Structure prediction request, 88 residues.
Amino acid sequence: MQRPRDPYLWVWLLLALATGLTFWLGQGAGPLGLGSVALVLALAGLKGWLVVDVFMGLRQAPRLWRRLMLGWLFGLCGLLLGLYAWAG
Prediction:
């Protein structure tokens, strides 16, 4: 049996695995600690990065567009983590 070489399949499988892990972390009893929230946001950032680079095709796009998209993504994740840490 040959291993599939399609990168979209592997990225899709990684996204599905990260989504399942994020769901599992969020289903814990009681409020999430700062470490769990940081892990959930890191997984969200990883998933967004894969979507931007692979499915949106911005890996080959001009640097400005890729930096704007990834900057917005990681800036939002950082802002949410900071607000969670400040409120908690």
About this structure: The chain has a mean pLDDT of 89. The helical segments are 7-26, 34-55, 63-87. The longest helix spans residues 63-87.
